[in-house]
Specification:
The protein is mostly helical and 310 residues long. It contains 11 helices and 3 strands; from the N terminus they run βαααβαααβααααα. InterPro entries: GPCR_Rhodpsn, GPCR_Rhodpsn_7TM, Olfact_rcpt, Olfactory_Receptors.
C-alpha cells in the first residue's frame, strides 16, 4: 500500500540535537524503560502467582500492566537507541509498524481503564450483584472485546497513515512515528485525514475521559452510604485509578484533539503519556494498594525460603 512515495525511510530528529543532552536522554529514559518493564512484570507475576489477587480488579490490572509494558516498548527502545545514534533513521515499514503498535496498546490501555472503572462501580454501587455481574467469564469477554476494539482502532489509524504520499523532505520532528508528525510531511492536503484523526483518536480520548470522570463521581457520591472503613478502602482504590486516568488522558487529549498545529512542548507531552505514565502506573498501584504489596512480600518470602532450602 506504499503508493506514490519517493520516501523509503525517515529521519527522526528526537528530543534534542545537542550531543551532551542526548547522553542525558539516554540515561534518563533507559532508567524509565527498565523501571517500566520491571515494575509491570512484577505486577503481572504477582497477580498470576497469588491466590489473594483473583478478583476482577486485579484481573484487569494484569492487562493494564501488560498494555503498559507493550505501549512503552513501542516507543522507548527507539528513543534510547537513537539518543546514541548520529543519524536516527527509521524505515517506512518500521515507521508504519510503530504507528500501529502505538495505537493498539494505547487504545487497549484506555479500554482497560474503563473496565476497571466499571468494576469499581459494580463493586461499590451494586455489591450484592457483584459476583454475578463481574464473573470471570464476563471479565474475559470484556477483555476480548477490548482487544478487538483496540485492533479496529489501530487498523483505522494505519489505513490513514498508509494513504499519505511522501515525496520529501523526510525529517520527522519527533522521537517516534505518529500520524500528527507524518501529516506535516505528506504531499497532499491533509485536512480531511486530520479531521478523521481527531474524530477517531480524539473522540476516543475525550469521550473515554468524560465517561471515566462521570463514573468516578457517581462512585464517590455513593460512598456516603458506606461505613468509614469501607469508604477508606474504596477511596484508596478509586484515588489510584483517578490519578492514572488524569496522568494518561490529559496529555492524550492535548495531542489528539486539536488542529494540525505544532507547539514546542508537543514532544515532552508525548513522552509523558507514552513513557512516563507506564512508568508511574506500577508505583501508583503498588504503593497505594496494601493487597498488592502484601502479595509481593509473600512471593518474595517464598522465593527466599525455597532458595534457602536448596
Amino acid at each position: 500500500m506504499q503508493q506514490n512515495n519517493s520516501v523509503t525511510e525517515f529521519i527522526l530528529l528526537g528530543l534534542t540535537q545537542d550531543p551532551m543532552r542526548q547522553k542525558v536522554v539516554f540515561v534518563i529514559f533507559f532508567i524509565f524503560y527498565v523501571g517500566t518493564v520491571v515494575g509491570n512484570l512484577l505486577i503481572i507475576v504477582t497477580i498470576k502467582s497469588s491466590r489473594t489477587l483473583e478478583s476482577p480488579m486485579y484481573f484487569f490490572l494484569f492487562y493494564l500492566s501488560l498494555a503498559d509494558s507493550c505501549f512503552s516498548t513501542s516507543t522507548a527502545p527507539r528513543l534510547i537507541v537513537d539518543a546514541l545514534s548520529a543519524k536516527k533513521i527509521i524505515s517506512y515499514n518500521e515507521c508504519m509498524t510503530q504507528v500501529f503498535s502505538l495505537h493498539l496498546f494505547g487504545c487497549m490501555e484506555i479500554f482497560v481503564l474503563i473496565l476497571m472503572a466499571v468494576d469499581r462501580y459494580v463493586a461499590i454501587c451494586k455489591p450484592l450483584r457483584y459476583p454475578t455481574i463481574m464473573s470471570r467469564q464476563a471479565c474475559t469477554i470484556l477483555i476480548v472485546l477490548a482487544w478487538i476494539g483496540s485492533f479496529i482502532h489501530s487498523i483505522a489509524q494505519i489505513i490513514l497513515a498508509l494513504r499519505l504520499p511522501f515525496c520529501g523532505p523526510n525529517l520527522i520532528d519527533h522521537y517516534c512515528c505518529d500520524l500528527q508528525p507524518l501529516l506535516k510531511l505528506a504531499c497532499m492536503d491533509t485536512y480531511v485525514i486530520n479531521t478523521l484523526l481527531v474524530s477517531n483518536s480524539g473522540a476516543i480520548c475525550s469521550s473515554s475521559f468524560v465517561i471515566l470522570m462521570i463514573s468516578y463521581i457517581v462512585i464517590l457520591h455513593s460512598l456516603r452510604n458506606h461505613s468509614a472503613e469501607g469508604r477508606k478502602k474504596a477511596l484508596s482504590t478509586c484515588t489510584s485509578h483517578i490519578i492514572v486516568v488524569v496522568l494518561f488522558f490529559g496529555p492524550c487529549i492535548f495531542i489528539y484533539t486539536r488542529p494540525p498545529t505544532t507547539f514546542p512542548m508537543d514532544k515532552m507531552v508525548a513522552v509523558f503519556y507514552t513513557i512516563g505514565t507506564p512508568f508511574l502506573n506500577p508505583l501508583i498501584y503498588t504503593l497505594r494498594n496494601v493487597e498488592v504489596k502484601n502479595a509481593m512480600r509473600k512471593l518474595w518470602h517464598l522465593k527466599i525460603t525455597s532458595e534457602n532450602k536448596k
